[in-house]
Structures are given as C-alpha cells and as structure tokens.
Amino acid sequence: MQISSTAKAITAGVAAGATAAVTAVQDNILTTGEGITIALAVIGAWGITYAVPNRPTRTTPRDL
User: Fold this and answer.
1) Which of 4, 15, 26, 42 falls between 20 and 30 A from 49, CA-CA?
2) Chain centre to alpha carbon of residue 28
3) What are the pLDDT digits (tens) for 28-47?
4) Which residues contact 48 (CB under 8 A, 6 or more apart)?
5) Rounded Cα–Cα distance for residues 35 and 50 (Å)
6) 5-10: long-range contacts (C-beta < 8 A, 24 or more apart)?
C-alpha cells in the first residue's frame, strides 16, 4: 500500500494540531500564544512530513 505525501502531511498536521490543542486547553482557556503554537505545530508538521520522501517499495526478492 502506498500513501501519498499529501495524505501523510495532512494526517501529521491533524495529529500535531490535536496534540497541541489538547495541551493548550488543559486550563479551559486558549490564549493567543497557545493558538499560535497550535498553528505552528500544524504548519511545521505539514512542511516536514511533505518534504520527507516515501521509502521506495521493494518489488523483487533481490531487493531484500
């Protein structure tokens, strides 16, 4: 199964944003700084994940 770079980046962005958001709202208040942190986590995850290429698949036993 091969997953596109875009799908990986979107999934990573959602995961990073959700993690940052859960941490930020522990005190039931979302400040501007916490909002910026969430946005940067999402954008950073998108960029880094999209930039890293998928590992090539092995198609023949010789490649093992």
Assistant:
1) 26
2) 24
3) 999 999 999 999 999 999 98
4) 12
5) 23
6) 5/49, 5/50, 5/53, 5/54, 6/50, 8/49, 8/50, 8/54, 9/45, 9/46, 9/47, 9/49, 9/50, 10/46
Quick one: angle between helices 5-24 and 32-51, nearest 10?
160
What is the C-alpha R_g of the chain?
17
Measured between alpha carbons, how far is 51 from 39 in angstroms, rounded to an integer? 18
Tell me the two tokens of residue 23: 């941490």
Would the pTM of this model clear 0.85, i.e. be above it? no
Residue 55 burial class via C-beta count within 10 angstroms: exposed 0-12, middle 13-18, buried 19 and up: exposed
